[in-house]
Design a protein that fits this description.
Blueprint (H helix, E strand, L loop, with lengths): L16 E8 L2 E2 L1 H9 L1 H6 L2 E7 L6 H15 L5 E6 L1 E2 L6 H13 L11 E2 L3 H16 L3 H4 L1
Parallel strand pairs: 1-3, 3-4
Antiparallel strand pairs: 1-2, 5-6
């Protein structure tokens, strides 16, 4: 479900939850943070995972991990499974000012992806798919309590 448009509670009857959140201007989106805060008990009860998507994950893993740590601290939710993936540089969707700001940030990081007439997608979709498949496979494995 799209958290931005479909409410802030986990629908009844869910067996697991994956929360995907993107980072903008150094922070995860507020509506995702609010969702995690409000549903923390349920997210801790159910098998759950966080997918964090950011430009920092494209070559600056330390900052990307810092965004997740800040999200966990602010929300109180500490997911057992976390996937960190690169996002996209969507110049064509930015207004002029944001495009120039993003271009400066990217240039300062040493990137040559400076053509503002096109977008750059860094997301490793195969990695996202593997993360999700591994999470789901873990749901199907019997826990140590089930084997006892």
């Amino acid at each position: 479900m799209d958290l931005k448009h479909s409410g802030d509670t986990i629908p009844d009857g869910q067996d697991a939850v994956i929360v995907a959140a993107s980072v903008h201007m150094g922070k995860h989106e507020n509506f995702v943070l609010d969702f995690a805060r409000k549903n923390r008990a349920e997210l801790e009860r159910l098998p759950s995972a966080l997918i964090s998507v950011s430009l920092a994950a494209h070559g600056d893993e330390h900052n990307a991990e810092g965004y997740v740590a800040e999200f966990e601290e602010q929300s109180g939710w500490h997911p057992a499974h976390v996937g960190i993936f690169p996002g996209a540089l969507l110049y064509t969707q930015y207004n002029f000012l944001k495009g120039q700001l993003m271009k400066k940030i990217v240039r300062d990081k040493g990137s040559t992806d400076l053509d503002t007439s096109r977008d750059y997608v860094y997301t490793e979709w195969d990695g996202v798919k593997r993360f999700t498949e591994d999470f789901l496979a873990g749901l199907a494995e019997p826990s140590s309590q089930d084997r006892a």
